[in-house]
């Protein structure tokens, strides 16, 4: 989106009960923070009393976060903060699957974890230090992105164990006036450990909650998210045709181009109640 289009979007007349959406957005952020604290201080300690090995406790925590995010999404939909349509969600959650998504907004990881029951995720390192998010990250065993070789191997190892791993190859939210730009680390991890890659295209209109944008910068009309699981990519051919560094570069370029092409396909408005 160019600067002129962004300016036109930001100056559009306020619609869809804007003042209520501002209040509902404030309630949503408060609920998210309070929920993170309650999980860390109360729910996860009680779950540890149920016993089980480390993997059992981790799966239990991930299921709790999954259901919490699902309720959080429902709250935002019912209060009119956003509408949502997720196409192909049944394709997600397979053995050893890497889910790769673009990253237009702050809510992307919430939406994906809310639809995949037992997923691991690579998250920004700073979130592991945040009082509201560090508890769930630690309990669920999410991988923090410190860009080290150890992190790459740890991520590949969880895929080899059969876990589903959610990755945002951009590493940060996409600026409003640019296309997604993927780093090769995600493809290097996939080629070392994944059974397959399933790209998920996240398209939202109007753009909001982008990098550097405060929560109270509520768009003129209600946000609509459309998530689409694209065709799954098997990796055997990529591994066999090229050495790993070349395969990572070529696969990364292929994925990035696929996302950019898909983002510029005509955007079809869906019914506001189409979200599942």
From TrEMBL:
The chain crosses the membrane at residues 18-43. Keywords: Acyltransferase, Membrane, Transferase, Transmembrane, Transmembrane helix. Pathway: Lipid metabolism. One of its GO terms (molecular function) is 1-acylglycerol-3-phosphate O-acyltransferase activity. The keyword Transmembrane helix applies. CDD domains: LPLAT_AGPAT-like. InterPro entries: Plipid/glycerol_acylTrfase. Residues 97-205 form the Phospholipid/glycerol acyltransferase domain. One of its GO terms (biological process) is phosphatidic acid biosynthetic process. Pfam families: Acyltransferase. Signal peptide: none annotated. This is Acyltransferase. The lineage of its organism: Bacteria, Pseudomonadati, Pseudomonadota, Gammaproteobacteria, Pseudomonadales.
């Amino acid at each position: 989106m160019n600067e002129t289009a962004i300016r036109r979007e930001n100056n559009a007349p306020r619609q869809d009960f804007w003042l209520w959406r501002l209040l509902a957005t404030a309630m949503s952020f408060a609920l998210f923070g309070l929920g993170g604290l309650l999980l860390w201080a109360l729910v996860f300690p009680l779950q540890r009393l149920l016993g089980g090995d480390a993997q059992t406790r981790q799966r239990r925590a991930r299921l709790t976060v999954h259901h919490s995010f699902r309720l959080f999404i429902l709250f935002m939909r019912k209060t009119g903060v956003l509408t949502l349509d997720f196409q192909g969600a049944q394709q997600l959650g397979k053995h050893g699957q890497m889910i790769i998504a673009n990253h237009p907004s702050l809510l992307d990881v919430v939406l994906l974890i809310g639809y995949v029951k037992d997923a691991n995720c690579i998250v920004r390192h700073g979130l592991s230090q945040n009082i509201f998010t560090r508890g769930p990250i630690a309990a669920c065993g999410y991988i923090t992105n410190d860009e080290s070789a150890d992190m790459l191997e740890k991520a590949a190892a969880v895929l080899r164990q059969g876990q589903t791993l959610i990755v945002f190859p951009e590493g940060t939210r996409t600026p409003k006036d640019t296309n997604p730009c993927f780093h090769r680390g995600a493809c290097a991890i996939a080629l070392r450990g994944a059974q397959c890659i399933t790209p998920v295209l996240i398209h939202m209109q109007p753009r909001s909650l982008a990098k550097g944008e405060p929560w109270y910068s509520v768009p003129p009309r209600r946000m609509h998210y459309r998530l689409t699981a694209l065709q799954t990519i098997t990796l055997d051919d990529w591994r066999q045709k090229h050495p790993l560094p070349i395969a990572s570069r070529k696969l990364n370029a292929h994925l990035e181009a696929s996302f950019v092409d898909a983002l510029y396909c005509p955007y079809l408005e869906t019914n506001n109640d189409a979200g599942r």
